[in-house]
């Protein structure tokens, strides 16, 4: 029996803290025996693994340029890609969306590429903090959003993988921490004020937990989490946010996703397309 105790997700302790400790067994239908015991897993992780495996199996094809997202769920997708790469020789080039993604790609022995050499991406796979009925997303809860959005915009197809707790009718229903917004550090204060004047709600500077001061993104910027009340028109909100000088990118991923894969605690997967 193989014990799996990987921890590529230290930057994503938010998820681990939410998770209840449990022991989960995963059965391979093909070989009909226990493949792995996931220690420190929970019902959410079973869903993440199921969603990641199915999304990779259905969408990653040999010879592709693949965008690799960030977060705790993407770890399982990269693991699956690496397993398939060993047996199928997929010959992929993987483009990272963060420091974490770059490390994952290298740790799993996959070919690391960049937008400089591969500006057109076949398929991108990523996680999300919340997914609405129209597969619009809030992302950036783990501090990554700008490179993720660039990679998603360069990809012919974006697939989202998540456990079913992320599945929601309207943005803000289940994700209560607000919309993450990446801002230039020197502008964070006026940006906070402008957001609250223009859109109401609260624009909170995200503070680090193991460092004094704010969270600093992979791009050297700060993050503001905009906590809002009942938004109707997300396109308009996204435009209003981007019109504020100092705002670099938002964690609103609107009309970008081809399909979202939600894994349930019993290992089933629900696929939502538009
Ligand atoms: O900032 C982080 C990224 O946008 C993640 O993709 C998002 O937070 C989802 O992460 P997880 O898979 O850990 O729920």
From TrEMBL:
What is the name of the protein in this document?
ribose-5-phosphate isomerase
According to its UniProt record, the EC number is 5.3.1.6
Please give an example of a GO cellular component term from this record. Answer: cytoplasm
| Gene Ontology biological-process entries | D-ribose metabolic process; pentose-phosphate shunt, non-oxidative branch
Leader peptide range in chain numbering = none
Cited NCBIfam families? PRK00702.1, rpiA
InterPro entries linked:
NagB/RpiA_transferase-like, Ribose5P_isomerase_typA_subgr, Ribose5P_isomerase_type_A
Which GO-annotated molecular functions does the record name?
ribose-5-phosphate isomerase activity
- Family note: Belongs to the ribose 5-phosphate isomerase family.
* Disordered: annotated segments: 1-23
Q: Which organism is it from?
A: Plakobranchus ocellatus
Pathway in which the depicted protein is active: Carbohydrate degradation; pentose phosphate pathway; D-ribose 5-phosphate from D-ribulose 5-phosphate (non-oxidative stage): step 1/1
Which reaction is the catalytic activity of this chain? Answer: aldehydo-D-ribose 5-phosphate = D-ribulose 5-phosphate
Q: Which keywords appear in this protein's UniProt record, sorted alphabetically?
A: Isomerase
Pfam (any one): Rib_5-P_isom_A
